Amino acid sequence: MKPVIVVHGGAGRIFKEREEGCRAGVVRAALQGYTVLKQGGSAIDAVEEAVRSMEDDPHFNAGCGSVLNEKGEVEMDAIIMDGKNLNSGAVSAVKCIANPIKLARLVMEKTKHMLLTDHGAHLFAQTMGIPEVPGEKLITQRSRERWKKNLEPDSNPEEFQKDLGTVGAVAIDSEGNVACATSTGGLSNKLIGRVGDTACIGSGGYADNHSGATSTTGHGESIMKVVLARLILYHMEQGMSPEVAADTALDYMKDTSRGFGGCYCCQQAGEWAARFLHQADVLGYCRG
Amino acid sequence: MKPVIVVHGGAGRIFKEREEGCRAGVVRAALQGYTVLKQGGSAIDAVEEAVRSMEDDPHFNAGCGSVLNEKGEVEMDAIIMDGKNLNSGAVSAVKCIANPIKLARLVMEKTKHMLLTDHGAHLFAQTMGIPEVPGEKLITQRSRERWKKNLEPDSNPEEFQKDLGTVGAVAIDSEGNVACATSTGGLSNKLIGRVGDTACIGSGGYADNHSGATSTTGHGESIMKVVLARLILYHMEQGMSPEVAADTALDYMKDTSRGFGGCYCCQQAGEWAARFLHQADVLGYCRG
């Protein structure tokens, strides 16, 4: 089977000054993930590598470059899921961790659990020998400025939010296994401890060889409301193509909430789709 | 429409010494929730009241009586969802809170978010004027003994776990609105910061007037793996009765993991089902 990886850098519009960096970042991430696949690596290794690449890239709202919470700190969520066996791992509200997606993978592989949060996730990171980075290292000037602007009395954080979003990837490897990974800094100026769709299995991502893999991006609370990733795969299980399934689920989300968002899905046969409401997205893909 | 409430006190076997207290507790909770419905209250008020009643009852693994984490502390998750508008609120890994279900309801009503975790959830509780209770107040002698036994080298925490489970309720009010609520102390001797199915929308519960309401109980990681609550309602949307939908979803869960569990679901027309794998459950219901 020819391997495929589809990588996204968040739903919503892209401001001009970010466009070049974002496009280069998703292409780089797609190529890095695809290199894993070409060398015979698994889908789950590939999506982890692609998301790790975007977490390290300050252009995206994940890892370094994440938006800040109400207190001016980075707090991140991430999930990874293997469609071969439905195993998954996730972390929520983690700080001072360079690559939440790697920590999520360790939750999946080294614990009996699927989601570790906040303080406990940090204790686990210590046990795994993952060093904490100074919180400042994850904060870009852009994030700080946005946070300050959002504190102004006439600010419109929701409007601002629309140029940012979760990063993620879906992949199919040469053995026909699918996987997804999603990582985010969440919503600008969110309450401390707010967990969005990304850490919740079925909302921020889902992968099952029998149907496909999906990673979602956009307004987390709207995505959670309809458990978007799982909904798309239900539609695919009923025989819809990835494109029709994604559009049907996104239309339903639009009807039930005012949230914006998008999704990226693939199925074992190699077919994939990237669909979104309202705004364009930054997207990269590689196909064998 | 005649109101209905179905209340559960956890999947799994019930040890003899707990049987009487558990049965009395679910009946009391069902009656308290039903009183809300009979007085013209909403389904969401009724499920909150029923779950609050079981959180206050030391016989159940929620609120006072919760199992302890690896450090010997109570850490709880809870979710509430209104089928009328798909609004929901949840908290994860909260300590020193007598009624996590009330905090979840406040997340739903007083924030733009749907899930607050750990430290941030406590800050929010303070803002809402919810007093912290001493951690010891939530710990029963039984929980402490179980925790200690699980620390012994030849212990079998998973076997022990089977006599405990999440508590929850589903209801239909006189206007035909459905709602669900679920609350839990999680898994005995879990890692600090472990979040289970209860806090994850679609896994621990889901409610939608167009299909129905579900609350789940059992081994959290197995429930999350299949996003159980949403899966049951998806089957009901396809025309299955609550009973057949629940059995189909639970059989699928059994096939994909070794976890035990159960679920409680109802639909707008008033039909309801309580189904479980392997073990009997404590269950109460009232119907107008």
TrEMBL record, chains A, B:
<dbReference type="GO" id="GO:0005737">
    <property type="term" value="C:cytoplasm"/>
</dbReference>
<dbReference type="GO" id="GO:0033345">
    <property type="term" value="P:L-asparagine catabolic process via L-aspartate"/>
</dbReference>
<comment type="similarity">
    <text>Belongs to the Ntn-hydrolase family.</text>
</comment>
<feature type="site" description="Cleavage; by autolysis">
    <location>
        <begin position="165"/>
        <end position="166"/>
    </location>
</feature>
<feature type="active site" description="Nucleophile">
    <location>
        <position position="166"/>
    </location>
</feature>
<keyword id="KW-0378">Hydrolase</keyword>
<dbReference type="InterPro" id="IPR033844">
    <property type="entry name" value="ASRGL1_meta"/>
</dbReference>
<protein>
    <recommendedName>
        <fullName>Isoaspartyl peptidase/L-asparaginase</fullName>
        <ecNumber>3.4.19.5</ecNumber>
        <ecNumber>3.5.1.1</ecNumber>
    </recommendedName>
</protein>
<feature type="binding site">
    <location>
        <begin position="217"/>
        <end position="220"/>
    </location>
    <ligand>
        <name>substrate</name>
    </ligand>
</feature>
<dbReference type="GO" id="GO:0008798">
    <property type="term" value="F:beta-aspartyl-peptidase activity"/>
</dbReference>
<dbReference type="GO" id="GO:0006508">
    <property type="term" value="P:proteolysis"/>
</dbReference>
<dbReference type="Pfam" id="PF01112">
    <property type="entry name" value="Asparaginase_2"/>
</dbReference>
<dbReference type="InterPro" id="IPR029055">
    <property type="entry name" value="Ntn_hydrolases_N"/>
</dbReference>
<keyword id="KW-0645">Protease</keyword>
<dbReference type="InterPro" id="IPR000246">
    <property type="entry name" value="Peptidase_T2"/>
</dbReference>
<feature type="binding site">
    <location>
        <begin position="194"/>
        <end position="197"/>
    </location>
    <ligand>
        <name>substrate</name>
    </ligand>
</feature>
<dbReference type="GO" id="GO:0004067">
    <property type="term" value="F:asparaginase activity"/>
</dbReference>
<keyword id="KW-0068">Autocatalytic cleavage</keyword>
